[in-house]
Design goal:
- Helix content is 41%, strand content 8%.
- It has 6 helices and 6 strands; from the N terminus they run βαββαβαβαβαα.
- By secondary structure, the chain is of the alpha/beta class.
């Protein structure tokens, strides 16, 4: 099992605590990327994983549990995993706004993630995944890199439009997508 809370500076104590509680009495091998969240005594805990290490862990894991970060969710799906998503809650000081909740709920309604906003939902998903890991497998999305590039470009355009509208100035495109080649030679 891979757990990834991302790299945001806000602690995600709720998720790490729930996982520590669920793991008691199990012998599930796991990697818990806990970021800025204290994780004393959590087996397999590492603060951060480099991109390649995170990709390898996702590829090897039967279950992926993660925060509601769009990139993490897309990467899990690209590796053929239906991620169990616990979105960060700004009301608990886990993030600056509710974008993870909105995004994860939308994907949960579409069946693209297993949404777990409560301890009970998380435990039920983990128990189901432990009993039948294939339940959290999806067709690996090999086109995710192109979709990610298109999404990044779209977000860039939206940001430019919002900035232009908020300043009352005529829109002038300043944003450019990444132009240097990516890890596999593709433009990113």
């Amino acid at each position: 099992m891979l757990v990834a809370v991302g790299t945001d500076k806000h602690p995600f104590t709720r998720l790490v605590g729930w996982l520590a509680e669920w793991r008691r009495g199990t012998d599930v091998a796991s990697t818990v990327q806990h970021g800025h969240t204290p994780a004393a005594g959590v087996p397999g805990a590492v603060p951060f994983l480099g991109h390649d290490a995170l990709q390898a862990a996702m590829a090897e894991a039967d279950l992926v549990v993660c925060h509601g970060g769009p990139a993490t969710i897309l990467e899990a799906r690209r590796h053929g995993r239906l991620p169990i998503v616990v979105p960060r809650d700004p009301a608990r000081g886990e993030h600056v706004d509710d974008h993870q909740q909105l995004f994860a709920r939308r994907l949960g309604a579409a069946g693209m993630v297993a949404l777990a906003e409560t301890r009970e939902e998380l435990f039920a998903a983990l128990d189901a995944g432990l009993a039948d890991p294939s339940r959290f497998a999806v067709a690996a999305d090999r086109g995710a890199a192109e979709a990610r590039r298109a999404a990044v470009e779209q977000v860039g355009r939206i940001v430019e439009e919002l900035v232009a509208a908020s300043t009352g100035r005529r829109q002038r495109t300043r944003w450019r997508p990444w132009a240097r080649p990516g890890r596999n030679g593709e433009r990113r």
